[in-house]
């Protein structure tokens, strides 16, 4: 078993259901495909992709709650190397309520959108040669229920969702192990190291940092006095000038819903699409998030849904993240769960993108230290193609921490 994970999708940073992970995602090490699939489709062609798919794709549903009729939708891509021998990963996208399609098309999956100006037609897809499916089979899961194409016959199944309930749904789907990256674990760690990280990144000055330390006395969450509140407001204002999920990236519109003024797009898509209510904000084409904009039109096209085997009438308008739906953050800290799993013998890899200010690697290192595990492997570089790709340290109980250089984890 392995423990590992990756951060959230751009523009979202909320605890993921299973381990309060960030807009990121949770990866579980598995040994087989979903066994309880209630409906599955082998997909050989996708609208907008030229020719047959050069990888094996299966989509389907797995029932996870009999009372509400909740079913989770998944995309299974078999390893392109040796599917019988390679590991199988379950990928959960954070948010919460964000579709696993984000990872499938924007992060580690086998396709990506052609970033061309949208003209009202069907967005085009191409093969991603850097997909993780080159060496592992991956199940991209729409979790919790009501994310992506996951649904419940009883509307209550979509409303009464939180950290614990969604974790149980995933456990019923398949639960063998996990991997985490830039995980949200506990506010006293996640948020309390943003000031130090902002100073290290050069976003706040020495004087502001010293004022924060002097007036806040190490507590940057609870404003202990008025001077602390004022300096933290200054810090917040300066951080707002950059993209905190990756400080080197351009700050762009993420997917703020607003009515589209693109009459051509509505007209051209009308016959082939479900009713479109609110297109996401249109970012500049050189933004990482432009693909999110294209995915809205691609996923709401009936040809796409037919190809993916989506059940008619289960989901209306598809949006990448359904933030308007209720979600209970009822797991205040996931640190006890990390401690429990590692003490039970699970191998764990926790990794952090080193330019992430939402969940800085400083905070991740701090909660790992709080486990009080002894160090078994000193801090050192790890390499890719002869170059340092990050730094790593090993702890007792088979726990490893690593940074990933300049990564949107």
UniProtKB/TrEMBL annotation:
SUPFAM superfamilies: alpha/beta-Hydrolases (SSF53474). The keyword Ribonucleoprotein does not apply. It holds the Pfam family Peptidase_S10. Residues 1-37 form the signal peptide. The keyword Protein biosynthesis does not apply. One of its GO terms (molecular function) is serine-type carboxypeptidase activity. Keywords: Signal. One of its GO terms (biological process) is proteolysis. Belongs to the peptidase S10 family. This is Serine carboxypeptidase-like 19. It comes from Aegilops tauschii subsp. strangulata (Goatgrass).
């Amino acid at each position: 078993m392995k423990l590992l994970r990756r951060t959230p999708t751009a523009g979202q940073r909320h605890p993921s259901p299973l381990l309060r992970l960030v807009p990121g995602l949770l990866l579980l090490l598995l040994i087989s495909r979903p066994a309880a699939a209630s409906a599955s489709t082998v997909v050989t062609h996708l609208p907008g992709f030229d020719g047959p798919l050069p990888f094996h794709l299966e989509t389907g549903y797995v029932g996870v709650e009999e009372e509400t009729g909740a079913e989770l939708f998944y995309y299974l891509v078999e390893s392109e190397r040796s599917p019988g021998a390679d590991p199988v990963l379950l990928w959960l996208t954070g948010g919460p309520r964000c579709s696993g399609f984000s990872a499938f098309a924007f992060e580690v999956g086998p396709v990506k959108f052609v970033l061309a100006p949208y003209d009202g037609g069907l967005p085009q897809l191409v093969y991603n040669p850097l997909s993780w499916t080159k060496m592992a089979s991956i199940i991209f899961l729409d979790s919790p229920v009501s994310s992506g194409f996951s649904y419940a016959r009883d509307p209550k199944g979509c409303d009464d969702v939180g950290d614990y309930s969604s974790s149980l749904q995933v456990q019923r789907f398949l639960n063998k192990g996990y991997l985490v990256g830039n995980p949200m674990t506990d506010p006293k760690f996640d948020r309390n190291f943003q000031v130090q990280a902002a100073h290290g990144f050069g976003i706040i000055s020495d004087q502001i940092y010293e004022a924060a330390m002097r007036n806040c006395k190490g507590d940057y969450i609870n404003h202990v006095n008025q001077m602390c509140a004022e300096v933290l407001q200054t810090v917040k204002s300066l951080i707002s000038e950059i993209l905190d999920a990756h400080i080197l990236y351009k700050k762009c519109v993420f997917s703020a819903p607003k009515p589209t003024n693109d009459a051509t797009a509505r007209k051209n898509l009308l016959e082939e699409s479900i009713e479109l209510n609110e297109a996401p904000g249109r970012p500049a084409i050189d933004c990482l998030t432009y693909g999110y904009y294209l995915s809205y039109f691609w996923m709401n096209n009936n040809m796409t849904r037919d190809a993916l085997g989506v059940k008619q009438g289960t989901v209306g308008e598809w949006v990448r993240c359904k933030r308007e739906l209720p979600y209970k953050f009822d797991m205040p800290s996931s640190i006890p769960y990390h401690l429990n799993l590692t003490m039970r013998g699970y191998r764990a890899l926790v990794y952090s993108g080193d330019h992430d200010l939402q969940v800085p690697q400083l905070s991740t290192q701090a909660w790992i230290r709080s486990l009080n595990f002894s160090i078994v492997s000193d801090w050192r570089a790890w390499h890719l193609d002869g170059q340092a790709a990050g730094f790593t340290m090993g702890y007792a109980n088979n726990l490893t921490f690593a940074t990933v250089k300049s990564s949107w984890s």
